[in-house]
Amino acid sequence: MNAATPLPVPDYAAPPKLAPTRLLTADQIAFFLQHGYLSVDNVMPVEEIPGVRAIYDRLFNEDRGRTEADLYNLTGAKQQGRKEDVAQILQPGKYAPALLETQMVANLKAMMKQLLGPETRMVGDHAINKPPRNTAATPWHQDEAYWNPAKEYRGLSIWVPLQPATKLNGCMYFVPGSHHFDVIPHRPIDDNPLTPGLEVEPGAFDFGSAVACELPAGGATFHLERTLHYTPVNQSDDYRRAYIAVGTQFERPRKTPRSFTWQERQAAARAPTKPDR
Ligand SMILES: O=C(O)CCC(=O)C(=O)O
């Protein structure tokens, strides 16, 4: 297969070959359903962390030539030859199928079923890598603002840091209870439609009740499709690596249509311009 041939999307929903070695408690499940987020100190064997980290780092460095088509600068327009402020790879499992065979993913698949029901399936993954001393936060947003506005969803993301996650290097913050809101107005980050990332419209929400979730490596936060969340800039001297598994209990066509103007602006900005006559 040559470099230009797109790789097939892996079967994210495939039942794991490994049995889960960690499960959530009834109290953790109840907390998640009440507050729309959850923080857990340990979702994978610590011995597995170095191997997962090695795969992760290869995807952003030595393997860049292969991952380029799915590698974005989340918080700014991508510029040839310039390192990303916040680098994101969509579907890293496509480039490193070994990730999907890990005990980590087997555990996350079991936990998503515990939280949303046995019909819940893993549907994708991504990886967000903040370089040392980067200058960009991942601004406040709801994940559903990125998704197809013609559909309704019940979905969650599980965010696994591969080194300790702290307020200093960019741990997750959540607004408890915000999963009960509708999708609130968003815009492309910095109002630049060439930026793939989104942010809540400035002034549309008061984030004063947000909570920070610091974690050891191999812990995880869990959040629903409408839970407001954010991570600050990485002020540390190391990369802040996070692997994110996404699952849905259902996704189906909405009865009442809606449009996400922020997505339309991004699509228009990406469209090739007509040559002058
Ligand atoms: O890692 C980050 O900076 C943001 C993660 C995030 O927004 C998510 O997992 O939905």
Number of helices: 6
Strand content: 25-35%
How many separate domains make up the residues? 1
Tell me the span between the first and last alpha carbons.
39 Å
State the helicity in percent bands: 10-25%
What strand order characterises the main sheet? 1-11-6-13-4-3-2
Cα-atom radius of gyration: 18 Å
Order of helices and strands: HEHHEEHHEEEEEEEEEEH
Large-scale geometry: globular
Low-confidence stretches: none
Summarize the structure.
The protein is an alpha+beta fold and 277 residues long. It has helices at residues 26-35, 49-60, 64-67, 92-95, 103-116, 261-270; strands at residues 37-40, 71-73, 87-90, 121-130, 138-141, 151-161, 172-174, 186-188, 198-200, 211-213, 220-224, 229-231, 240-253.
Mind explaining what this structure looks like?
The protein starts with 25 loop residues before the first helix and ends in a 7-residue tail after the last helix. The protein is built from six helices and 13 strands. The radius of gyration is 18 Å and the shape is globular. Strands 1-11-6-13-4-3-2 form a seven-stranded antiparallel β-sheet. The chain has a four-stranded antiparallel β-sheet with strand order 5-12-7-10, with no helix packed on it. A two-stranded antiparallel sheet has the order 8-9. It has a single domain, classed as q2cbj1_9rhob like domain (Jelly Rolls), CATH 2.60.120.620. The longest helix has 14 residues, at 103-116. It has 277 residues and is of the alpha+beta class. Helix content is 19%, strand content 25%. It binds 2-oxoglutaric acid. The site of 2-oxoglutaric acid has 10 residues, from strand 6, strand 12 and strand 13.
